[in-house]
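User: Hey, quick favor. My workstation is busy. Could you predict this chain's structure for me?
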Amino acid sequence: MGTIKNLLFGCVFASLSTGVFAAPLTATAHVNVTSDTAATAKNMAMDEARRQVIVEALSPYSDSSALRTAVKNEKSAILTTLIESSGISGERQSDTTYSANITMTLDRNASRNWLISNGVQNWLGDGDDSGNESWVVVSLNDKLLDWSRVRRAAADAGVDLNTKSINGNQINFRVPAARRGALTIALRDAGWRYSDKDGVLYISK
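Assistant: No problem, here it is.
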């Protein structure tokens, strides 16, 4: 078997559309793989890119640890069924090496069904769940400063926070279920940690 010389993968496109439907589950993997032949290297690159894209695209909507385990143990043929569309740019190959930028978009319904069948806790809706809300609990170290940072991250992601209660340095609020993923991505990018417990999103520094 060949060895992967280098693999760097891009970020999920995090901005959501202004309508009811959620953004596509899209990510890009930049791959450079060496094997015994270019054809084998390309097959390896596509498989690895597919696994990386699935993890990157679905992590904001699921238990990322359980997701990584499920993806690692899943057959390539099954993961292929989660891909709705794909595109390749910057493709280069030699007799033994294949490199490219591989962008893939996941099928939302197929991905949700796969997560459920593998017992991966998730909150991936069908993209038309703006009428539902999800609970979010934030633990703050510096109440005023941290809360302003949470609100700023939410505003930048276009997410409205429906504050329900304040208890010491803990604030409970609700967000539209269709926007929960956008909030998770924004907070993660701002340096916050997150976890899901029974459908409630917990945020902390």
